[in-house]
Amino acid sequence: MNAFFVISGFLICMSCERASSIFDYAIKRLRRVYPAYLVAIIFTFLIGVLFTKLELHKFFTSSETYRYLAYNLIFLNFKQVSLPGVFSDHVDVGMNGSLWTLKIEIMFYALVPFLLIACRRLGTTRVLLIGYVLSVTYRVGFLYLFDATGDEVYSRFGKQLPGQLCFFLSGAFFYFWAKSNRAVPWWAALTGIVIYNVPYDYLQISLGPFGLAASVSWFALNAMHFGRFGKYGDMSYGIYVYHFPLVQVAVSLGLFAANPYASTFALCLIVLLLSLLSWKYVENPWLRRRTS
């Protein structure tokens, strides 16, 4: 998930710089995120209808059902993660546990135009470094409180937007680095992997985000080439928004317990197929629309 924020920092800064205006940038971000997100919410709702242990009239009259739809449609997933009577015996009762990052991602989208303005006026390295230090300080502070009290609430707060900003800004740094035609050296990627996996929490939190960004950027720019695979479309977002509810379905049906390897393989194929269909019939048509 941290790598997701790194990649986002790289790509969203690039998207904003290439947009003809702030309005154009905002519309493109909305078109990229919301159509497939809306389909994913409807998809999980239909799964809920099929898998609820409640009688259907109780399911449809429950306030939880409509809280789920209302909050999830506006990215406030944490306010209602589950549907009544659905997956209630699972370790994770959420319908789509992946979506918690999207509220953070949307806030990053809103931040980027101001970030780029600040970089132009005050200097890119200075702005990104100040933001990185503040974000790391936030994370370290909440880690200290968690270690001192053992209260999980501090751990959860530490993973919210200010604590994730250091990953996003690290990705942004390597966007500007690549933009200036400078290559990310292989030794920086290797060192980054080592730093990101050091066992000492405070060192890992302080330097790990930048180390991870160095590794991800190097692999993305130098090693991650899959020939003409991209001609089939960009299935990454579809994989992200559709896989979790299907995993929940497989767990509910006992498929992993019966045959974990075959179930995993079949699930991967189904997710890829759904993601391909989503790209072809939902995401790409919206992205190709002209902004009036």
How does this structure look, described?
There is one protein chain. The protein is mostly helical. The protein folds into 2 domains: 2-100 and 230-287, no CATH class; 123-224, no CATH class. It contains 13 helices and no strands. It has helices spanning 2-18, 22-51, 56-61, 63-73, 100-122, 124-149, 152-158, 161-179, 186-196, 201-223, 236-252, 255-258, 260-287. α1 crosses α10. The longest helix is centred in the N-terminal third of the chain and has 30 residues, at 22-51. It is globular. The mean pLDDT is 90.
The count of domains is 2
Separation of termini? 35 Å
Low-confidence stretches: none
Q: How many alpha or pi helices?
A: 13
In what range is the share of β-strand residues? under 5%
Number of beta strands: 0
- Can you write the helix and strand succession as a string? HHHHHHHHHHHHH
Characterize the largest beta sheet: strand count, sense, and whether it forms a barrel. Answer: none
Instruction: Report Rg.
Output: 21 Å
Shape: globular
Q: What's the rounded overall pLDDT mean? A: 90
Structural class: mainly alpha
Report the helical percentage: over 70%
